[in-house]
Each structure stands twice: as structure tokens, then as C-alpha cells.
Amino acid sequence: MPKITYIEHNNKEHVVEVPAGWTVMEGAVKNRIPGIDADCGGACACATCHVYVDPAWLPKLSPRQDMEEQMLDFAQDVKPNSRLSCQIKVTPALDGLIVRTPKSQH
Amino acid sequence: MKRIVIIGAGQAGVQAAATLRSEGFGGTLTLIGEEPYPPYQRPPLSKAYLAGDFARERLFLKPDSFYAETRCDLRLRTAATAIDRPSKTVRLSDGTALAYDRLLLTTGARVRKVPVPGADLPGVHYLRGIEDVDALRPNFRAGARLAVVGGGYIGLEVAAVAVKHGLEVTVVEAAARVMVRAASLQLSAFYEAEHRAHGVKFQLGAMAEAFEGTARVEAVRTNQGRVPADFVLAGIGIVPNCELAQEAGLACDNGIAVDEFAATSDPDIFAAGDCTCHPGFAGGRVRLESVQNAIDQAKHAALGMLGEPSAYREVPWFWSDQYDLKLQIAGLAQAGDVTVLRGDPQARKFSVFHLRDGVIAAVEAVNAPPDYIIGRKLIAARARVAPERLADPNVPVKSFI
Fold first, then answer.
1. Chain B partners of A32 at a C-beta cutoff of 8 Å?
2. What is the interface pTM, i.e. ipTM, of the complex?
3. What 3 state SS string does chain B have?
4. pTM for the model
5. Among residues A3, A8, A69, B365, which is most buried (max CB within 10 A)?
6. Domain B3-110+238-305: what homologous superfamily?
């Protein structure tokens, strides 16, 4: 099962296994990693699952879709490596992925 | 305060449990649920879970470890049968009783049954829980005929999944338009046209009079004719579960009556989620059927139970996924609102703003997240924006803030 590293804004690290087919958001919520609210449960409707993807991993992700792009525009402290974690599907190729959670989702 | 009991293990119940612990509650916490499953998300039931794109485990809101780590005693397959307020105890279906210092009712709602002959025939389905969808899904075979009774969100989301699976779908709706309870005229017209373009047939202004069939349902008879069907999905709304509260003498009126702090008429008993009727953001009293309300009201209820009351004033929001259309709604539209169209429905990307006395009261956005997010902020701020600016796509939506 792919391993994903979530790093909180205070640098606390969580390494968890996330089944392929799930999203990076679900991996966080199901493992109780702080900093990802995901109020809408992954419907790309709330922009409360914002993460920063480790730049080395960016090329391995499928690019942002239009809806995600538009929602991200309203997240806090958006950077070029910002993504909505509900829109990143876990695949075996993402084994080792590193994402950081922002200080706040609101 | 040492003991908190939560009745109802859905989105609101588990949110309250999480908030109680994160806010430092150190006492005994019990979460009672009637269903065999731990708290789960309902929105995917009529969408990805029905379509078979979403494994059951993905529905669960928390991992099993959550309940152990937060010392939340989750008791499934258990119903609360009575609340004894003088002794502050709850009686349970397993014959035991639980004492509480504070009690939270997150009892949710149940489907409204269609009150016509034949309603109990095999093949007549409703959609509220995991088991409903598990029973519904085997009927989704290409060529099968589905009659949907009720053109609201549930009925239309199921219709969208069904036509994608190659079913022949007819929607029977009592009102003259679809989504009548929750959407503006423009939005109803747009969604009806989308569904028709995908092959869904409609009987609008049609009253279901009977489900016909002998061994199982074969048709829905309406005042406009007969809709032959291999199975039926009825989605005509939900009824709040307030009997437990009522029998305990708590004030109820279209739901369990609570104040802005989620307190019932008994200061030791709180309620949150679909089962409540509460002060609305725009005044009056409302009963909301949504994830947002479950989450936000439960947080306020948790704070209230801990003696740190904080008023629940969030703007309501909802979403619906049908085909490739993402509908996001903030605020509650009302008859009499002035509506302003922004964008082009033909382009399948537009929004409808609702103004009440010049103030932005609601927004319905289709594939237009910026309009929704800005709209939600404008509603919260009770802002005024000139209709001609709202309608002008050359004025960026961000400039309204």
C-alpha cells in the first residue's frame, strides 16, 4: 500500500499507508491527521483540504482540473504547489508522496 | 460535569464527539447509534456509492481507532427508547439505562413514505442509508425501467446515475418544476433540460396515486397516466426524528426546537443536525437537511454543553452532483427574492444570485465555484451589490468583496 507523509505546519510528521484509489484527503482524515477539515467529504465543494505538495512530487501528479483551480483561488496562502487533497488520487506511483498541511483551512 | 450521552451516530453526533474531546472534555462520552455501521457520510450514497465507484469503507467518517483513542463509547445497533428527565437517564433498547449530565440529540431524520396503495410492494425503494443503496444497486442493469417519485436532489442524483448505467428513467414530480423546494425557477429549468438531454423523461405536476403490481411493483399510476417500471425510487423528503424528544416533553415544532446555542427547552439537553428547528441566518426558524448544518450546529452544541456557549450563525450551504455539473448553493432562497443571472446557462457555467431588499441572500452556482465562494461571503456580510454589476461577467466576482 502506498505510504504518504503528511507534515503539519509545526513540522510534526505522520507517515501512513493509504489504499490506492483513495484520495490524499481521505488518507489524512481516516488517520486523524490534523489540519485537513474536508467538510464536504471530498466533493471539491468546500476548499478545506488544502495542502502543499513537496515540489519534487509535483511532476508525478495529474494537473489541477478547472474546478480545483477555481476553488483553490479562495484557499488561504495559496502557493504554486498548492492542491486540494481531495482531488489527488493515490496510486502506486505516489508511494512516498510528501504533503504539508497549512496552518489553517479557513 | 462528568457524563455526556449523544443519541444518534451520524454526521452531527460524531462531530460533537470530536469537538467535545478537542475542547478538553475529559468525562465519560457515549455515542448511541441504531444502524450497524459507525458514523458515515450520506452525500455519496446517492452519487458515487450508488454508482459503485466508492467502497463502503470510504464512507466511514472516522477510523475505528478514533473511538478508542478519544474514549468515545460507540454503541451500534442500539436505540434510545426513552429519556427520563427527572432522573437524567436514557433508556436503551438493550434494556440498560445510561445516566447523563448533558444529553445531545442528533437523531437525524427518516424518509417520508409515499402515502399511496402498493407502497409496501417489493421493488419500491427509498434512499437514506447504506442498506437502502445496497438493496437498490442490483436493479441498476442496462435497459431496466426506473420510475423516480420526487424530483428533488435525491431523485435527480439517482436519475443521473441511472441513465449513465443505461436505464430508462422517468421522474414523477408533484410540483410544476424539479427541485422546487431548494432552487430558483432558472435553476429548475436548467436541470430539467439537462436531464431531458440525457434521456430522462418527466411527468411534472403529476401526483402518484398508486404503485401497481402483484408480486412486485410493475408501474406507478399517476393522475397523468401509468409509468411502467421494473423498480421505483421514491425521494419525497425526510421527516425529523423528534418523537423521543416529544415524549420527554421537549418543545418540538417541525423538528426539535433549539435556540442559537443548540439548547432545547431543557437546559441540560441539546440537539443538532437534521432533527432540529433553529433560528435561521436570515431570521425566522428553519430546519436544514445538510452536512453543513450537521457539522456546524454540532460544534456549537458541543461548546454549549461545555458551558462555553457560542451562537450558531453560519450561512447554510449545500451541494449536489449530477452528471458533470457541480451545483453549490449558499443561503436560502425565498419566494419574492429578486434573482440575477450571472453567466450563461448554455455554457453550463453560471450562477443565480438572490437579493432580498437589496441584500444578497442566496447564490446558486453551477460549475462556478468563485461565484459560490464569494456569494457565501457576501451573504455572511449581508452585503449589497448592484444587480447590474452582479450580472456583468466583465466585472470580476472578487471585486464585490
1. 62-63, 65-66, 69
2. 0.83
3. CCEEEEECCCHHHHHHHHHHHHCCCCCEEEEECCCCCCCECCHHHHCHHHHCCCCHHHHECCCHHHHHHCCEEEECCCCEEEEECCCCEEEECCCCEEECCEEEECCCEEECCCCCCCCCCCCEEECCCHHHHHHHHHHCCCCCEEEEECCCHHHHHHHHHHHHCCCEEEEEECCCCCCCCCCCHHHHHHHHHHHHHCCCEEEECCCEEEEECCCCCCEEEECCEEEECCEEEECCCEEECCHHHHHCCCCECCCEECCCCCECCCCCEEECCCCEEEECCCCCEECCCCHHHHHHHHHHHHHHHCCCCCCCCCCCEEEEEECCEEEEEEECCCCCCEEEEEEEHHHCEEEEEEEECCEEEEEEEECCHHHHHHHHHHHHCCCECCHHHHCCCCCCHHHHC
4. 0.94
5. B365
6. FAD/NAD(P)-binding domain (3.50.50.60)
